[in-house]
Amino acid sequence: MISFIYVFLLFGILVSVLFPKPEFQGSTTVGERGQIVLPAELRKKHGIKPGDKLLVISNPLPSGASIIMLMESSVLNQMLSDMTEQIGQILEAHGKEQNNDNTE
Fold this sequence. Notes:
- By secondary structure, this protein is an alpha+beta fold.
- The protein has helices at residues 2-18, 40-46, 76-103, and strands at residues 54-60, 66-72.
- A two-stranded antiparallel ribbon has the order 1-2.
- A hairpin with a 5-residue loop joins strand 1 and strand 2.
- The longest helix has 28 residues, at 76-103.
- The two termini are 22 Å apart.
């Protein structure tokens, strides 16, 4: 049960880190060679330039569809650092909770 709670909390942290204020940024079409074009306003807003690296992350849904996300590779370290800190806080709180249970 505890592992399910950790997975659920980690998922919640990931979603809140990745999508604190989601915004619709337009649409794109996959070309014959499998390429997509990011809308110009999106590129301008986020400073994305030719040659920048983006991570492509997908998550299948039970319906058979998928969520596909693009992430600037430069933010990955910060995201992982934030998640590690939050996981540490969760584990510390859980340890204190177990210590309190053992002393009762």
